[in-house]
Amino acid sequence: MSFLKYLFILFFAVFAYHVSASTCVSCHEGIEAPSENHQFACIECHSGDNTAEKKDEAHKGMYGGRNPSDPVVWDKTCGNCHQYQLDRVKTTVMFTNTGMIKNTQKAWNDFNRKLYSTTDIVSYNAKGEKFDIKPIANGEKMADELYRKFCSACHVGFDRMKGYRAHHSAGCAACHYSHDKSGKYLGNDKKLMGEKLYAKSHEMNTLPGDDVCLRCHNRSGRIALSYAGKYDGNNSLVPLNGIYPGPEIMSGVRNIRHTAADIHKRAGMECIDCHTSRELMGDGYVYENMYNQVEISCASCHGDENKLPETKRITTENAAPLYESKYYARQIAFGTEMVLTDKGNMFSNVFKKDGKYYLMLKRSGKLLEIPTIMNTDEHQVYGHDRLECYTCHSKMVVQCYGCHTIYDKREKSMDWIKGKVTKGKFSEKEDIRLYYPFPLAVNQKGKISPVTPGCQTLLTVIEENGKTSKDDYIFNFKNGKNFKFAPFYGHNTGKNAVSCRECHMNLTFAGFGEAIVSTKQQNITSSILCDKTGNPLTALYSMKNGRLRKSSQIVREKSDLMGKNVIKSMIKANLCITCHEKADDDIYGEKIDYEKILNDDIHRDLVNINN
């Protein structure tokens, strides 16, 4: 036997002895090993005393109580072995929530041009500029309190153990451990069996499943629900299953109904098959907004109308796909031609082989051939290069209209960031929720995309003496009482696009809400109006006496409304679409000269160009 082989056997024998000889397992008999790579003494992660016979003595000095990955102690635990990954996680927007805090402050007129986070951060942005970000715990504005008491329950640093189907641990365990719907431990440790406040099992998720993402992403944009083909709005909590809503519910006693799942979901793809570790765990830089950290788009894998996906061959032994794919069903080989993200980084599971593009499902290793769209006729429509792919291919976009927020100073509620109950309690209710069709505007990339209310806050403040100091107050935004809409990808994509006829003829897409048209008065209005302003809730514009009126604005930097000229072009296209319904018709390959075409011998008798 070689000396190295002898050392290897001895090494694992010692660790196996430590586990079996530990007094931890005398109480926690049957508890699962976290993973193949974590089969060592309990105290390596949890600390404490694994020789003590009594519980209090054994648990003395444990890191993080039941969760050694808690951010309070993660430098001493997970960070001991995974310092590189931990340094990244400390900067990810899912931990810092910098964008969520900033945009909440902007929506409530409380933004002072300073960035806040869930904790103190001194780091750098992608340009190499130093960021000194202050903790939101010190924020004194109402928007800061709203974040701490409402939004913060989902960030990675928070240990959420309340609510049905909403439990998640803090720190690394937030993603790498699954929780049962009930929040109970269901593993083999008889001591913990059925206990609440624990993960479903002591076994770690090396590859987090969609159930983990759903714990947080089932509210607000509800992207985890939409991706799975589920929704929770406007259903009056029916059908009922006994005395409870059912057959499927979410936290907050919300009834779940079903629709078609995203086409990628139907192909077997999980969230982790699209999203890279640099997006989820961070890349070491601090970002002001989520969309700055995201590095993928539809075009990353499918290309666009002019080019194929970009690729780069693995030529170094420390390339990210090599070590990341060690935990996949198949490992990526040295020399593989990997597809690149929009930031020029390699995907760890998307590659080119023999002239074709493939995505490998990380958990199963199954290969999916990726269709590309370069030179396809339906993607060569003049002017459509300004559209996001999901502008046409979204099947639904969650739209919550009329967010009535009540702040009652007479009540108390938990401040999740400060970790204590303080004065003031928020509650919310919405007017209506819609899914399809959806309005369009210009996003932060200059592309026309779906937008959703973000957010249409109407604030009511009840003072300690019971008097109402604000009653459905609407905040100023961009020089007026404008409702706010945000660019949004709804995560419910279909193979078949919205038809040309529907998109160009349905004025909801153009931003006119329900679009009640009076040709005589030259008015366009909506059926759902705000009592406070008289403006439509569901529209970006209205028209009165032939004049376009803006009633909403688009949040996010560099985002904007489409504008009068774009809307006119959108509607004018109906002159052709009436007969030429297909996007692959040759006439759409270049800019249409309406004056020339509609006045030729073929079209002159079909349409009166002066009308």
TrEMBL record:
Q: What is the top-level taxon of the source organism? A: Bacteria
Q: Please list which residues make up the signal peptide.
A: 1-21
The record, for InterPro entries, names: Multihaem_cyt_sf (IPR036280), Multiheme_Cytochr_ET (IPR051829)
Q: Locate the coiled-coil region(s) and give their ranges.
A: none
Single GO molecular-function term?
A: oxidoreductase activity
Q: Which UniProt keywords apply?
A: Signal
NCBIfam families tied to this protein: cytoc3_ExtM
Q: What is the name listed in the Swiss-Prot or TrEMBL entry for this protein?
A: Uncharacterized protein
**Originating species:** Flexistipes sinusarabici (strain ATCC 49648 / DSM 4947 / MAS 10)
